[in-house]
Write a structure and sequence with these properties.
Order of helices and strands: HHHHHHHHHHHHHH
Structural class: mainly alpha
Oligomer: single chain
Shape: elongated
Strand content: under 5%
Mean pLDDT: 81
Low-confidence stretches: 333-372
Length: 372
């Protein structure tokens, strides 16, 4: 038996008595097919091209309109010895290494430390670059959410989750579902393609896991016709992402209070959609309700296993988001000095652990990371 035949045998991916034969087009009804997914790669390439044009035109103009400014950076003086260590050994030399470098470079300890600070600062992404990335993602997420809501709002499974299993697996494919899937998958593939050039955040590994799990989840739900569940999951994710990206944009523009209030709204929507609606409505209906209809099978465990991976990431991020959102609530609003913001994560709106002013309290915000 061929390996592919063994992997795709009916009993692994469908309830007993059902299989791939049930998903053949007939009577004018069209069903999802694995070969349809090849289109996501040219779509991803189109997204990369559109993004480059968008960031160089629309995003730049919007940055100018919101008065996003770059602060002058003091460049490190040319020094072959320190540059070689910086590029080949470490960007953060230990105390013993600093002392050794002072002998090799004929500089004092303070001069070496200052040189490394300035050299690291040179490699930090510019405010304009970060604004452009956030602007691109904001535009996609808000359009995807509106399109997804428009495609689902008149469907019975949008209001009654159990309807997503009505007639499974012979659920005819709708044009709106096809394009929603292909565009979402194409976008996430484009994010993986561009990860090397995007601003690298401290939750880089968690983001990669999230993107890969999302792509696998969406692709698998397409292959085995869990499309109704898949569209609901995508809509839940899109519901809060555009708020986060807009908070970043206002932060880069220096609109601190607007950024804080949007972030509080984002935190509320994130908690509602990903810690309430997703686990207690959608995952409950994909994990508990099917067992009343069919005995469990491998595809059932695989699909829900990917959902649980995403849910664990959501819980991890929600805790960090809540800690930040509480600090931004009215009456406890921190107004950091403009030069005390640094990149820590996909929120990128956390102040650094240096001193800053507050309205009512004098303490520090220091989260290590947060993400989408």
């Amino acid at each position: 038996i061929l390996l592919s035949d063994w992997i795709w045998q009916d009993r692994l991916w469908f309830p007993a008595g059902l299989g791939w034969a049930n998903l053949k087009d007939r009577d004018g009804q069209v069903f999802a097919k694995g070969r349809d997914l090849w289109v996501i790669f040219p779509i991803a390439v189109c997204f990369l091209i559109i993004r480059q044009i968008f960031e160089r035109t629309v995003a730049v103009q919007l940055a100018s309109l919101l008065r996003v400014r770059e602060k002058p950076r003091v460049r490190a003086a040319p020094n072959t010895t320190l540059e070689s260590y910086f590029c080949n050994a470490s960007k953060f030399p230990s105390q013993s290494s600093v002392e050794e470098l002072t002998k090799q470079s004929a500089c004092s300890v303070r001069q070496v430390q200052r040189w490394f600070r300035r050299r690291r600062n040179q490699e930090r992404p510019s405010q304009i670059k970060k604004f452009r990335e956030a602007c691109w993602r904001f535009t996609f997420y808000v359009l995807a959410f509106i399109a997804g809501l428009g495609a689902l709002i008149d469907k019975p499974w949008f209001y009654d989750m159990e309807e997503m299993w009505n007639g499974f697996p012979t659920l005819p494919l709708l044009p709106s579902q096809y394009w929603y899937y292909m565009i979402e998958l194409g976008f996430y593939i484009s994010l993986l393609f561009s990860v090397a050039t995007d601003v690298k955040r401290k939750d880089f590994k968690e983001q990669i896991v999230h993107h890969v799990a999302t792509i696998l989840l969406i692709s698998f739900s397409w292959l085995v016709n869990y499309i109704r569940a898949g569209t609901l999951i995508m809509l839940v994710h899109d519901a809060s992402d555009y708020l986060l990206e807009s908070a970043k944009m206002f932060n880069y523009a220096g609109w601190r209070k607007t950024c804080n209030y949007i972030f509080i709204l984002f935190a509320a929507v994130f908690i509602l959609t990903r810690l309430v609606i997703l686990p207690f409505w959608i995952i409950h209906t994909t994990w508990v309700y099917p067992l009343t209809l069919y005995p469990p099978f491998f595809g059932f465990y695989f699909f829900n296993g990917l959902l649980f991976v995403l849910q664990c990431l959501h819980i991890f991020w929600a805790g960090l988001i809540l800690r930040m959102a509480i600090k931004f609530l009215p009456g406890n609003v921190c107004i950091p000095k403009p030069n005390h913001y640094r990149v820590v994560s996909w929120t990128e709106i956390e102040p650094s652990p240096e001193p800053y002013t507050t309205l009512h309290h004098h303490h520090h915000l220091n989260l290590s990371k947060t993400t989408y």
